[in-house]
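Sequence in, structure out.
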Amino acid sequence: MSPKKASGGDKMSEHTLLLLDRRTMEISGVENVNTFDEEEIILETVMGFLYVLGEQLHVSMLNLEQGKVVVEGSIINIQYKKEGKDIKTRGKNILSRLLK
């Protein structure tokens, strides 16, 4: 199976999620990181929004050109959701925190 290129650039249109011992998660097909802190990470993927909940979470590798992210920490919950107001609001909150 060969990976397909998205029409807009180098990003893969394929989405994979590999979870190792609930401590390390490798994700492909990531288009954007909406928000992140030590307890919650929200990623926009080609398959929808991915919520990662846990403790002491951190993004150890981020390459949006290739659509790849590696998350480390104690992963408690993984959930896909459709875009909603709460996601847009959280995305604005992280941007405002970074710009302060």
